[in-house]
């Protein structure tokens, strides 16, 4: 007898929705239906094999769904929650979201969602400064934390069902209340995006006066500001939704900066060194994502400009330094976007050597 398929609806088939869809597709008994306001996003998702079917009609997308993932920008998640109240849904459906903020979304969902629907807030702590389904990957969330923020009283069985389904992402699912999530993630994700963009804007102003700024911006500036290339609208929404925590963190940040200014004004070498040392010790002690239960990934992703000969140049550079690779895959080749090359190295050590080398030659490289 054929097993009944589980249907997943992904609302917003971009970077995160697409990555969820790809992970869910690991299970042959899951059928993934994508909904997006943009037909071109659905077309790309179908071409890339991210979803089984796509529609711009929300009712069609959700009618058969057992689990609905809301994966649009945060402001649109609110709008979709409202729309869902007017649609036919399965009796035991689970609705979850992937929004970067949680308190307001969870509060809104509890207010509007009908009783037969279970809402469980969610947020995968993995992503990229890139947007769109073409950047989606079934490995994006591997070994990352995936936070669920079930409201008190949520059915344990439904939480377990969603948790089991999320094991397909290979992320580590953890639970916390929405406010704790917003405070912690405000500090480790939201506010860093503010800092990165503020620093870039400051330097851009200096660069207007003296164009050497952009030219001399090397590894340090690029490392700390990578996330300033993220989607401005997404971060606009995040800041507005996490207002109180952001304001508190910004206040603490201003005091922290003032402390350094005072040390510099006083010319206090021990204080300055201590400032850098405490930061280094905490940073070096951060748990590494690769240290999960799964074997480490030796994959490196490289953005390749659409110039002839770029892939040959990359493999020649690696070969000349005897850096061994075991696999090479062109992830996306379309006229309208850059290609992304995935290189699998023989070992973690070779990956690190390759990464350093390619960064030196100005390639935009990243690990997942
Ligand atoms: N980018 C990250 O690093 C990251 C990480 C974790 C969570 N998130 C959260 O994931 C969500 C999606 O972010 P993303 O980076 O995948 O963005 P994205 O721009 O890559 O994808 C968003 C998709 O939603 C679609 N969309 C817009 N309005 C819609 C609507 N009303 N209904 C349905 N679809 C709609 C867009 O067309 C697009 O395809 C956001 O809520 C964000 O806070 C992002
Ligand atoms: O890696 C990045 O580019 C990200 O910004 C990912 C990141 C973050 O770590 O801050 C951004 C937003 C999220 O909601 C979760 C993860």
UniProtKB/TrEMBL annotation:
<comment type="similarity">
    <text>Belongs to the prephenate/arogenate dehydrogenase family.</text>
</comment>
<comment type="pathway">
    <text>Amino-acid biosynthesis; L-tyrosine biosynthesis; (4-hydroxyphenyl)pyruvate from prephenate (NAD(+) route): step 1/1.</text>
</comment>
<keyword id="KW-0057">Aromatic amino acid biosynthesis</keyword>
<feature type="domain" description="Prephenate/arogenate dehydrogenase">
    <location>
        <begin position="6"/>
        <end position="294"/>
    </location>
</feature>
<dbReference type="InterPro" id="IPR050812">
    <property type="entry name" value="Preph/Arog_dehydrog"/>
</dbReference>
<keyword id="KW-0560">Oxidoreductase</keyword>
<dbReference type="InterPro" id="IPR046826">
    <property type="entry name" value="PDH_N"/>
</dbReference>
<dbReference type="InterPro" id="IPR008927">
    <property type="entry name" value="6-PGluconate_DH-like_C_sf"/>
</dbReference>
<dbReference type="InterPro" id="IPR002912">
    <property type="entry name" value="ACT_dom"/>
</dbReference>
<dbReference type="Pfam" id="PF02153">
    <property type="entry name" value="PDH_N"/>
</dbReference>
<feature type="domain" description="ACT">
    <location>
        <begin position="299"/>
        <end position="368"/>
    </location>
</feature>
<dbReference type="Pfam" id="PF01842">
    <property type="entry name" value="ACT"/>
</dbReference>
<dbReference type="InterPro" id="IPR046825">
    <property type="entry name" value="PDH_C"/>
</dbReference>
<protein>
    <recommendedName>
        <fullName>Prephenate dehydrogenase</fullName>
        <ecNumber>1.3.1.12</ecNumber>
    </recommendedName>
</protein>
<dbReference type="InterPro" id="IPR045865">
    <property type="entry name" value="ACT-like_dom_sf"/>
</dbReference>
<dbReference type="Pfam" id="PF20463">
    <property type="entry name" value="PDH_C"/>
</dbReference>
<keyword id="KW-0827">Tyrosine biosynthesis</keyword>
<dbReference type="InterPro" id="IPR003099">
    <property type="entry name" value="Prephen_DH"/>
</dbReference>
<keyword id="KW-0520">NAD</keyword>
<dbReference type="InterPro" id="IPR036291">
    <property type="entry name" value="NAD(P)-bd_dom_sf"/>
</dbReference>
<keyword id="KW-0028">Amino-acid biosynthesis</keyword>
């Amino acid at each position: 007898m054929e097993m009944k398929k589980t249907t997943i609806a992904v609302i917003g088939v971009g970077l995160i929705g697409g990555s969820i869809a790809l992970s869910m597709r690991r299970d042959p008994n899951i059928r993934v239906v994508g909904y997006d306001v943009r037909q071109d996003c659905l077309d790309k998702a179908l071409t890339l094999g991210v979803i089984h079917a796509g529609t711009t009609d929300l009712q069609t997308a959700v009618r058969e769904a057992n689990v609905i993932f809301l994966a649009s920008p945060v402001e649109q998640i609110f709008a979709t929650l409202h729309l869902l109240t007017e649609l036919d849904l399965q009796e035991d459906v689970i609705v979850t979201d992937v929004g970067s903020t949680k308190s307001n979304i969870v509060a809104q969902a509890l207010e509007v969602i009908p009783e037969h629907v279970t809402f469980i807030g969610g947020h995968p702590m993995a992503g990229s400064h890139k947007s769109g389904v073409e950047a989606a990957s079934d490995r994006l969330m591997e070994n990352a934390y995936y936070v669920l923020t079930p409201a008190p009283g949520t059915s344990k069985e439904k939480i377990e069902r969603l948790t089991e389904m999320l094991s397909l992402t290979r992320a580590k699912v953890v639970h916390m209340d929405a406010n704790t999530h917003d405070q912690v993630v405000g500090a480790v994700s939201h506010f860093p995006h503010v800092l990165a963009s503020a620093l870039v804007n400051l330097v851009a102003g200096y660069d207007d006066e003296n164009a050497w700024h952009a030219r001399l911006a090397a590894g340090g500036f690029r490392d700390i500001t990578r996330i300033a290339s993220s989607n401005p609208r997404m971060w606009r929404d995040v800041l507005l939704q996490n207002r109180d925590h952001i304001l508190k963190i910004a206040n603490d940040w201003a005091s922290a900066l003032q402390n350094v200014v005072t040390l510099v004004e006083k010319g206090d070498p021990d204080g300055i060194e201590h400032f850098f040392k405490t930061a280094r010790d905490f940073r070096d002690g951060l748990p590494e994502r690769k240290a999960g239960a799964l074997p480490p990934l030796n994959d490196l992703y490289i953005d390749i400009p659409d110039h002839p000969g770029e892939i040959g140049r990359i493999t020649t550079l690696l070969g000349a330094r005897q850096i061994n690779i075991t696999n090479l895959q062109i992830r996306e080749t379309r006229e309208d976007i850059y290609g992304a090359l995935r290189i699998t190295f023989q070992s973690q050590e070779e990956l690190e050597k390759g990464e350093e080398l390619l960064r030196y030659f100005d390639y935009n490289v990243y690990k997942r």
